[in-house]
């Protein structure tokens, strides 16, 4: 599914292409944890999480079109379409308790999805985790997606250390990766925060201690985007602390969901 025109509804998720949006866990679980990838990333970002988290938590990994197993599909045409599709898929899965996790761009997608699910169903996540991203009211991106390839790569490395060395060393892989990054950055650039009702669920903001893009104050600013309990954690590493600190990160997630 490339995008959803207008507002998504639960009926829209019946097609196989819509079901491709999520990799679902194999085992039964009590809590659904929906995970949103960073710009340029896909469901593989979270592929090992189910091995570490207890079986009570099922990891649902969002896979936007245009990457990994969906690389032949057109990208989402707008940020709103992305959120509408995600909210619709969560809404149609019934009343099981759920939580949301998003890293980098995925953080603001997760936040807006929480608001959209409440609009559709009246339900809220039991917890919202936002990782390595500024709060919704902070400007998020200049139009760096419009830069020529070499300049875009240099800017991504300067801001986020955002392209793995093995990708930079392989021109063919880099050629396949950059259009995904450009598309996601264009969606992010188009995002504008809409003031209104904010979630009442607990919100945990997590970041890397050496992240050059998200300061401690910017991470702390997320406390204004929930009326529920707020916590913040900083783990060793930069913007992509996520993989090297997976054990510590998942301990935070587990303790929040299964205290």
Description of the structure:
The protein contains nine helices and seven strands; from the N terminus they run αββαβαβαβαααβαβα. With 259 residues, the chain is an alpha/beta fold. It has one domain (10-140, 193-257): Alpha/Beta hydrolase fold, catalytic domain (Rossmann fold), CATH 3.40.50. A seven-stranded mixed β-sheet has the order 1-3-2-4-5-6-7.
Helix and strand topology:
Layout: H1 16-19, E1 22-23, E2 31-36, H2 49-52, E3 57-62, H3 79-91, E4 98-103, H4 105-121, E5 127-131, H5 149-160, H6 165-168, H7 171-190, E6 203-208, H8 216-220, E7 230-235, H9 246-257
Helix pairs in contact: 3-4
Descriptors for this entry?
Rossmann fold; single chain; alpha/beta; seven-stranded mixed beta sheet
Poorly predicted spans: 1-18
Biggest sheet character: 7 strands, mixed
Under the CATH scheme, which class?
Alpha Beta
* Helical content band: 25-40%
Widest beta sheet: strand line-up? 1-3-2-4-5-6-7
Number of domains: 1
Specify the overall morphology: globular
Note the gap between the termini. 37 Å
In terms of quaternary structure, the protein is: single chain
Average predicted local confidence, pLDDT: 87
**Number of helix segments?**
9
Order of helices and strands: HEEHEHEHEHHHEHEH
The whole-angstrom Rg is: 17 Å
CATH homologous superfamily designation: Alpha/Beta hydrolase fold, catalytic domain
**CATH fold assignment:** Rossmann fold
**What structural class do you assign from the helix and strand content?**
alpha/beta
Number of strands: 7
Strand content: 5-15%
Q: Which architecture does the CATH hierarchy give at level 2? A: 3-Layer(aba) Sandwich
